[in-house]
């Protein structure tokens, strides 16, 4: 895997870590009056970057280095969902599912990153 892909994994790990913090905050505020849940968007940024013109591409399905370094996850407040009587729109069941899915995604990314570093160490040691 190229260094470019390592950068992509690291950026995705950062976004996944931020998502974990945001979900935890949503869960913490499940009973807070007027609280609106937040969410992290990173995947659509990746999709847009892949579709757009990028620098230093050697293959059509590769990202350019500039695009990866410029990707920043965004946190947005969700206001278009059903609200409870207290004005709060956090659904604890949904947040717990999101938390579990995100944790699994993070673990998979760590596994990929460790695998890539292991391969690099093998190549370097030969």
From TrEMBL:
It comes from the Bacteria. Pfam families: Flg_bb_rod. Keywords: Bacterial flagellum, Cell projection, Cilium, Flagellum. GO terms for biological process: bacterial-type flagellum-dependent swarming motility. InterPro entries: Flag_bb_rod_N (IPR001444), FlgB (IPR006300). It is found in: Bacterial flagellum basal body. GO terms for cellular component: bacterial-type flagellum basal body, rod. The keyword Repeat does not apply. Residues 12-36 form the Flagellar basal body rod protein N-terminal domain. The keyword NAD does not apply. Structural component of flagellum, the bacterial motility apparatus. Part of the rod structure of flagellar basal body. Belongs to the flagella basal body rod proteins family. The basal body constitutes a major portion of the flagellar organelle and consists of a number of rings mounted on a central rod. NCBIfam families: FlgB (TIGR01396). This is Flagellar basal body rod protein FlgB. It comes from Jeotgalibaca dankookensis.
